[in-house]
């Protein structure tokens, strides 16, 4: 397709109509706003008074290319190469999963619950580094460590840490290699002490749910960060919960983002392992998505 209008109002209408079949009105509004900011340096406040602005043919062509790529399913965050997460602007590309709003809610839950001194934080399956970086920015005196299997994701997380000037360290490790995982935790504790907070947003979507998912996720985001075997969808929660216990400080907390259909089963794992004060929480969509528990 190509746009016929060059004035602000007309182009915005065409842009909206072109994406209506694939995105909600709120999503299109966000894409339009972020596109103007990213490509043309038109700030949010300037957009409110830009209705008399006309776009050049090159600008229209750029927006047209963007719309065509979106219609083919490429994620918007990958196209512009960035995403905002808990007040931080993160570099984002196909090396890592795009942070979801519920992950931001998990971070906020942690930040609201802990106002006192936090010395050591561990983020397991850290991906782009969104959780660990947001926590480092909030708990500025804490030592924050991210553990991740994908070297590509670690590289992205380290690039984000460097750009944001946040002192998060990232360690390559395989949670499912139990001996190696526990050895890594032991070594880190020897160096920096036990963990006060452990948080994880591990892979939790059973393979059979692929057929219900959008193609833009399946075709572009890393499957490694999304899917687990149908016969054991809770394996990451079970291994993480059990493996970290010896390395937790007194009264330490563990936080999980969960599959809403399995949150009660995950809660039972924590209770059976001896964790106390196990609490589940809904996300803003009303789905039971988060868990926290305290070391006994």
At a glance:
This protein is α/β, with parallel strands linked by helices and 296 residues long. It contains twelve helices and eleven strands.
Low-pLDDT residue intervals, each spanning 5 or more residues: none
Superfamily (CATH H level) name of the largest domain: Vaccinia Virus protein VP39
Using the alpha-carbon principal axes, give the shape: elongated
Q: What can be said about the biggest beta sheet?
A: 7 strands, mixed
Assign the CATH topology of the largest domain.
Rossmann fold
Based on the model shown, name its key terms.
296 residues, alpha/beta, Rossmann fold, two-stranded antiparallel ribbon, 11 strands
How would you describe the overall organization of this protein?
- This protein is of the alpha/beta class and 296 residues long.
- It folds into 2 domains: 8-72; 87-294, Rossmann fold (3-Layer(aba) Sandwich), CATH 3.40.50.
- It is 44% helix and 19% strand.
- It has helices at residues 8-19, 25-40, 44-47, 57-71, 76-80, 101-113, 130-138, 151-164, 178-192, 215-220, 235-244, 263-272; strands at 82-85, 88-91, 120-124, 143-148, 169-172, 195-200, 205-206, 227-228, 248-257, 276-282, 288-294.
- It has a 7-stranded mixed sheet with strand order 5-4-3-6-9-11-10, sandwiched between helices.
- The relative contact order is 0.11.
């Amino acid at each position: 397709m190509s746009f016929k209008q060059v004035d602000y109002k007309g182009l915005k209408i065409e842009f909206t109509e072109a994406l209506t079949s694939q995105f909600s009105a709120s999503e299109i509004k966000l894409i339009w706003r972020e596109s103007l900011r990213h490509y043309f340096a038109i700030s949010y406040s300037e957009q409110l008074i830009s209705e008399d602005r006309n776009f050049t043919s090159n600008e229209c062509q750029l927006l047209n290319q963007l719309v065509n790529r979106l219609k083919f399913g490429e994620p918007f965050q990958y196209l512009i190469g960035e995403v905002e997460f808990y007040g931080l602007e993160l570099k984002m590309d196909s090396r890592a999963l795009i942070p979801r709003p519920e992950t931001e809610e998990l971070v906020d839950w942690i930040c609201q619950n802990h106002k006192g001194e936090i010395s050591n934080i561990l983020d397991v399956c850290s991906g782009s580094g969104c959780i660990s970086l947001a926590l480092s920015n909030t708990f500025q005196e804490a030592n924050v460590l991210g553990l991740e299997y994908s070297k590509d994701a670690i590289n992205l997380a380290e690039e984000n840490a460097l750009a944001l000037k946040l002192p998060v360290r990232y360690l390559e490790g395989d949670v499912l290699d139990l001996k190696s995982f526990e050895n890594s935790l032991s070594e880190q504790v020897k160096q920096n002490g036990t963990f006060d907070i452990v948080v994880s947003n591990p892979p939790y979507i059973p393979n059979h749910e692929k057929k219900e998912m959008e193609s833009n996720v399946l075709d572009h985001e890393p499957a490694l960060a999304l899917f687990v075997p149908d016969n054991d969808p809770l394996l990451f929660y079970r291994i993480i919960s059990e493996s970290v216990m010896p390395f937790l400080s007194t009264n330490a907390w563990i936080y999980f983002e969960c599959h809403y259909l399995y949150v009660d089963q995950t809660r039972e794992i924590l209770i059976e392992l001896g964790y106390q004060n196990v609490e589940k929480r809904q996300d803003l969509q009303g789905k039971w998505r988060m868990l926290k528990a305290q070391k006994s």
